[in-house]
């Protein structure tokens, strides 16, 4: 015969476990989007959870386009994006919810060109970059470098950084070669560290054993990006469907507060307040 005391213990355990599980679900914040921002947002989420133990924040990557798609489907609370939403994305959001969504600027970044440390080329004009990614410049020797063929590295088609790069460097034209496509910026940097003839692009907030190319003779750094002297800067966005409430609102407010902005600076991006 089953012991009644054991049954009572099991029922009490199930009750408290269920309450705990429901509490976690109630206080969960779901975030998805930009690879550029994933590391940064993960750090912000972890710091926030240390201060607010009742909140659990799940951060996923996949690219800005995928993040915006999951926001439109109602699968996340926040989409982080390294680019503005497209007109057709806003239109779909409006059709689903009769709302155009809200954007919160959480930091500033720049799209930079990554070069191997041993590449003698240190400066590229905007036109040089355009011609490289249109395959009109094919050898480094054409722009003052060595004789190797240029290996063009790019992000995949879900990447907000790829779209932004095309718009700002290529006047919206397509990238001529997809021979070397990587899903994350970290993989691009790792490849360039080991290939002298490679060039790639990504966010300023990523670092490695690489050089940032000067663009039009301007080196990307915290001052030139903040003051827009570097020619290709951008804002980092949090998108929500509607005015955020509760834990989501509290988290966003903390990110754009002085405390959150200090973490953004610490992680290599640019505060929106300075």
Please characterize this protein's 3D structure.
This protein is of the alpha/beta class and 274 residues long. It has ten helices and eleven strands. The protein folds into two domains: 8-108 and 235-266, Periplasmic binding protein-like II (D-Maltodextrin-Binding Protein, domain 2, 3-Layer(aba) Sandwich), CATH 3.40.190.10; 109-233, Periplasmic binding protein-like II (D-Maltodextrin-Binding Protein, domain 2, 3-Layer(aba) Sandwich), CATH 3.40.190. Helix content is 41%, strand content 22%. The strands form two sheets. Strands 1, 2, 3, 4, 6, 7, 8, 9 and 11 form a nine-stranded mixed beta sheet that branches. Strands 5-10 form a two-stranded parallel sheet. Strand 1 (28-33), helix 2 and strand 2 (56-60) form a beta-alpha-beta unit.
State the name of the first-level CATH class of the largest domain.
Answer: Alpha Beta
Strand residue content: 15-25%
Radius of gyration: 22 Å
Mean pLDDT: 91
- Low-confidence segments, ≥5 residues, pLDDT <50? 4-26
Number of domains: 2
Strand/helix succession: HEHEHEHEEHEHEHEEEHEHH
Largest sheet: 9 strands, mixed
The beta-strand count equals: 11
Contiguous helical run count: 10
Helix/strand class: alpha/beta
Tell me roughly what share of residues is in helical segments: 40-55%
> CATH fold name of the largest domain, please?
D-Maltodextrin-Binding Protein, domain 2
